[in-house]
Amino acid sequence: MTEFLQQLINGISVGAIYALIAHSDVFMVGAYLGYYLGPRLGGGSIGGGLVVLAAAMAGCAILGMQIERFAYRPLRRPTRLSLAAVLGWCGGAAAGWFVVPLALRGLAGWSPGWATYAPLLKPLAAWAGAELGCRLAEAGFGRTPGLRASVLNSRGGAATLTVLITAIGVSLLLQNLGQKVFGANPKAFPQPFPVTQFHFSGLTVSSNQLVVLLVTLVLLGALHYVVHHTRTGTALRAVSFNATAASLVGIHNDRIIAFTFALGSALAGAGGILYAMNYPSIDPLMGTLPGLKAFVAAVLGGIGNLPGAALGGLLIGLVETLVSGTRLSTFRDAIAFAILIGILLFRPAGLLGRLRVEKV
Of 11, 74, 110, 334, which residue is the least packed, with the fewest Cβ within 10 Å? Predict the structure, then answer.
């Protein structure tokens, strides 16, 4: 009984992480942000760990917005991606990336503490420079001919297959850039929070497991509040239901979709930190299998259903952990995907989802 309860605790911890993953390779970037920022932002204490977590979420949110802008937005309508905007974006990003270290070097001579913030401010300055350069280029040169979205469905948006191929391309791009920038060898992840083991009644609970559960509950609660109790959340649900009707009532679809990417990427960044806390070895391909299991969890709970995604993540984590303690431990991944096949066969809407009839 004690062993079962121990595996139950471990499964809840793993499942809570699966509930947060939105994009497997943004998840990986979040873990690497924690790796590089942790020692510089006071990781190892409770306050420093929260700062590292917030910084990783902010960095992943910015990455998600850029992915949406340059990979997905051109697919939604037959417009041209401005060549001036692309050049302005690249020039602004380079200026922000290289100018800020020079400025900080001068400030460090006046106050050495400024040098500590260089790793955090460099990507923020690059993003700010990219946005400014892009807007100035479009204002000065207009939308000059550039790359054109060519595969569109009959309603003027991207075909589903095109979006799927784009997602695969973005994933491969991030993986290969990760191997180029971070190196292909695994790295030992520094613990952002103090680690303590609690023992009671034969059970062992790590402080990392408690942090994972607490952070997941807070983030999912905040996500539920944003989606269901704010004007932005109302606009988000309207766009997901009918983007054309939403635009007709004054909703800026591009901004709402960019916000959605930022929100999902921030949660993925948090998931990367929490995952690396429990499995402290990171590499550029670390997000592949957890991302697939997060997809299984979303299908299991019901696509588009927030409580369902959380429930699916917990169930997959529990099944995976419980199977690991049996003779079938080598088949734990296969069992997770067998659950996916079973759900698609017998309840394609998921446990908490509802089938919707679409009018043609």
Answer: 110
